[in-house]
Amino acid sequence: MFRSFLSVSIVYVVGVPLTLIVNIILARWLSVEQFGLYSFTIAIATFIAIPVSGGLPMLLTREVSGSLQSYDTPTYQRAVSAAIIWVMSSSLLVLIAVSTFIWLFESERAGLFFMALAMVPAIGLISVSEGTLKGLGRPAIAEASRQLLVPPIMLIGVFVVSRAATPAAGNALMANLVAYAFVAFAALTLTYVLSPVRLQPALADKTRLLQWGSALLSFALISGIATLSTQFATLILGLLGQQDQVAYLRVAERGAQLVGFPLMFINAVLGPKVVAAHRNGDSKALLALSRQAARITLIVSAPLGLVLFIFGRQLIGITFGENYVSGSYAPLVILIVGQVVSVSFGSPGLFLMMSGFERSSIYAQVGGLSIMVAFVIALSSVLGAYGASIGVALGLFAINFLASLATLRKLGFFPGVVSM
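Structure (tokenized):
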């Protein structure tokens, strides 16, 4: 597992700075309010993509990994075909539903919302590729599409736009849209090339589709709740019209995500290993995986958090600009604490999902998200980005604690650094 972790880490070590550079350039090119509007629209795109792509990577990782382990090539082909059909058909339904909403309630910002809508099919197709490649045991390549391809294309797009257009959120979003469309095509092509057997269209029977549909609903709920937990504060601040606070929170999140990225590295390689251990009935292997994953991530995350805590003000000023220091540092510290605590739990939700206990994970996510929603709504209108960050940190703790209790009940051990 360490070798896979290292390969995924290398992808993120290259990709995260690229993504950060894109955000820095956008923050310096756009005004604080326009950068906040851009961030708000990206959050909307991520949110409305949940019905299309939510849960697909997790479901495909499980199904592809399981079918290839049992040498069931037809099921592998049918799963990938069904996922692509789902992305295209559900994207059309989302387009109709959201277009109606825009026409009725949001005509003033229709252009930005339609750009967010246009990203949805690309996000879905990238998710298909990501889940399939992880199921094939290629986690580093799966993560590379988003981490290594999107940022450079965005940089090129922003450079071109900055030469030809005025600084505006809509122009930055256009560059983002082009990047995602190109990466979706490249990722699917790469999946086809790396597939151990030829990928060709194949239709699953009704029984299998119903099984996948039921599992996808559970995975989509889990993914949707997880996505909402990361985007809810941005959405609330944006809906309140506090675009400057959205920008401050966005900058704080960029820094805090550095602390949480090691957990994403390990999750990218952990899924198939959990599936294999659970199917073999090896509870000791599950316990060992949980402990090892949590310890590796905490060893990497804690020093990163300490550096950001000590030098956060200077780093924000050097990168994003002095305009963001006063509004972003305090939220950054709160989010760092939340991320370090989250990392210490390991990946209880992933263990539940990959072991077939999706509902238990959903209950934990719903409970934690409810706490987050309550605190974000209560504190955002009064304290802005600072209050929103407190709500997010409390929600992260609640989600992981409840998921850990569920893991103890279902799998027989409490996950994390001191798994027992």
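The mean pLDDT is 83. The chain has one domain: 2-411.
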